[in-house]
Design a protein that fits this description.
The structure holds 2 protein chains of 2 kinds. Chain A is mainly alpha-helical. In chain A, about 60% of the residues lie in helices and about 0% in strands. In chain A, helix 1 crosses helix 3, helix 2 packs across helix 3 and helix 5 runs antiparallel to helix 8. Classes of the chains: A mainly alpha, B mainly alpha.
């Protein structure tokens, strides 16, 4: 979308960027065309330029004293810094990887065969029916049934309570890593 | 010793090298704090606190523009001061902004007395206009139009995007423009908008 289209006149943001020389050659040419045809925009530009010039004329405050540190201030207990090799980008990368694992885990548990409550051609199978069917099929089938995950299982072979515990742990780890990365970026 | 060597020495715990950096940046740090807080004493406290924090957190400095890193700490300290001020009903930013006694200290004593008085007036009106801005807009405006930093360096100081810097700056300028246009009578004659028709 063109930055010229939404406003019937030139926006303050465009005029401000124009003053700072932050427009492309083409944008600059179009702004100047509009300024030539729009006295209202030209007036706003003049006032904006005056504002910037006035701010630049603001007197600077003389520094009242030197802010150098004495040994005593420097010697106070220092908090340990982060290890030099550890960068916020590493933490964000780890958070992204864990978030991806979380998504795969959840998608896998919902989308793969065997997920959700057991349903067998024509409707839900009660625990009683299931047990009797297994016992009728002999010891080998019974053994296999015992090894299979119980109550609603996910496609990755995790029982649902385990699944949610793993998912919650991953979610918390992602949040902690992102908070640590944010803390590293903000020095104080 | 050049700036990079000073930074490296300071990061190894060399306090003398760090103090050389303090002398290099204290003018800009103090002026940023003064314009943010509108009070010389609060600005001095904030500047000192920022340099102490900078020294203690040198382990967190990850390279890049050291000046931007220091100014970011100053900005954060000023935000903390402003938050504390808002919790105290007895004083307000507006009260501080119109404190002519403090603004008078802004002017270089070597200036001619007439220029001194004019710039004192100008400084007072500018401070009143700036004090009305929300903190993020105020920071961008000070860094850009008073301290002369580029958009890129401001984005680094404020940990934000160039687009955000651009939009905050334009909004801040528009508000200061409106204030200056409404209060032309408070400005010395030479700082009023001249009635010409240059685009």
């Amino acid at each position: 979308m063109s930055i010229f289209r939404p406003n019937p006149s030139l926006s303050d943001e465009l005029l401000s960027a124009y003053l700072d020389g932050r427009l492309s050659h083409e944008q600059r040419r179009r702004v100047e065309e509009r300024l030539a045809a729009d006295p209202e925009a030209a007036r706003r530009l003049r006032e904006l330029r005056y504002t910037v010039q006035t701010l630049r004329a603001a007197p600077r405050a003389p520094v009242p004293r030197a802010f150098t540190l004495r040994e005593a201030a420097a010697q106070r207990p220092r908090r340990r810094g982060w290890p030099a090799w550890l960068q916020p980008v590493h933490l964000r990368g780890a958070a992204a990887a864990l978030a991806m694992a979380l998504v795969l885990l959840l998608v896998g548990s919902l989308a793969l065969p065997g997920s959700g409550p057991a349903v067998d051609q024509g409707g839900p199978v009660t625990a009683q029916e299931d047990a009797s069917a297994v016992s009728a099929k002999g010891p080998a089938v019974q053994e296999a049934a015992e090894l299979a995950p119980t109550s609603p299982a996910d496609g990755l072979g995790l029982a649902q309570p385990t699944l949610w515990a793993v998912a919650a742990t991953l979610g918390v780890a992602v949040v902690v890593l992102l908070l640590l990365a944010w803390r590293m970026d903000r020095p104080v | 010793m050049d700036e990079q060597a000073l930074i490296q020495a300071a990061c190894r715990g060399d306090l003398a090298a760090f103090n050389q950096l303090v002398l290099l940046y204290q003018g800009m740090a103090y002026n940023l704090a003064f314009r943010m807080l509108g009070d010389t004493e609060a600005a001095a406290d904030a500047t000192q606190e920022a340099f102490i924090k900078a020294y203690r957190n040198l382990g967190q400095y990850r390279g890049g523009a050291f000046r931007a890193w220091v100014l970011r700490i100053v900005t954060n300290v000023c935000y903390d001061h402003l938050r504390n001020l808002r919790r105290r009903p007895a004083s307000s930013l507006e009260d501080m902004a119109v404190d002519a006694e403090h603004v008078g200290e802004l002017v270089d004593p070597a200036e001619a007395p007439s220029d001194y008085a004019l710039r004192q007036e100008l400084g007072r009106v500018i401070q009143q206009a700036i004090a009305r801005l929300p903190s993020p807009q105020r920071t961008v405006l000070i860094l850009s139009d008073i301290e002369g930093l580029s958009y890129e360096e401001i984005a680094e100081v404020m940990q934000t995007s160039l687009g955000t810097v651009k939009s905050r700056l334009s909004r801040a300028r528009a508000k200061v423009r409106d204030y200056l246009m409404e209060h032309q009578e408070l400005l010395p004659g030479r700082y009023r908008l001249q009635d010409d028709h240059e685009p």
